[in-house]
Amino acid sequence: MYSPKFRITNRILRFISNIEASKEVIDHAPLLPYYEKQFQQDAIIRSVHYGTHLEGNELNLSQAEKVLQGEDIVARERDIQEVINYRKVIEYISKWENPEYGKEITESVIKYMHKIVVDRILPDEKSGEYRKSQVVVKNSYSGHVSFRPPTSAVVPIQIKQLLEFLKSKDSEEIHPVLKSGITHYEFVRIHPFVDGNGRVARALSTLILFEEGYDIRRFFSLEEYYDKNAGKYYEALQSVEKQDGDLTLWLDYFTEGLAIELSRVKNKVEKISVDGKLRQKLGGKPIMLTERQLKIIEYLQEVGFLQNKAFDQLFPMVSEDTILNDLKDLMKAGIVKKQGSTKGAKYILH
After folding, report:
1. DSSP letters of 25-44?
2. pTM given for the model
3. Domains of the chain (ranges plus CATH)?
4. Distance between CA 311 and CA 128 in Å, rounded?
């Protein structure tokens, strides 16, 4: 069985502490559905773009977003397909909670993820199949050889050993973030396929976080952190071999990245959190909103104002008096204010 070698340093402890603090805020922030979708969509776009750009994809962020929205762009067919495929693998791991997808990470799961990543890029005989030749890993920016993975003959057994580790009692004692980082490195080191290993490694690493309860509402993307300084990413991966297999420096880099990303998301969430805004308006007092009131606030944030004539559209089966009472409570709380006094009056956010 694979047994990772690493030390828990004060820096790593601090990063994990920061991750836990940010996770707590993000997980419990009462965001409106509109913003929840925006955060998730933003994370997907950044994951897809930076996760493929890291390995030489030439699309910029705007082009990648257009591809994900189904728009046509002028670009290399492979670049377009890589973006589409990486989106699909993110969708796959995002559905991991669904019982029909199973809950155990197996060789079949890894091979299926690879098939998604290289769909229409590699020939069928190399899609979802371990490599049968020796390869070298190059830094896509410098072109220099980063490291030489093990021979193809040992790939199946080393993947099995990694999976055994993930199911072991030893693994249960390791913090999920560290387990994710360990798996990321070990998969890249084994480099089981002829192409697409980095993308599968990052997706597998994210899947482990999801499986361990660290999906964090799927608001985060580590890929941007890697791509913003690709040299540092490759240097961190190479540090393990230079340190005789010790993962400490890599895990320092990995945990710092997640801490930075979640802190960024936390700050953004706090700025638009319904709870945060309302507490501020009410001098720190908590307030409970009904589903209708949340929907009214969401509508006001999207449209800018609400009038009586839009009540039917917003709440088809609810009486006008009930909606007016909801608005009255929101006005009392200082969240909404009314402009005008006739049927044409407008309700806006305070």
Report:
1. HHHH----HHHHHHHHHHHH
2. 0.80
3. 10-272 (1.10.3290.10), 275-349 (1.10.10.10)
4. 53
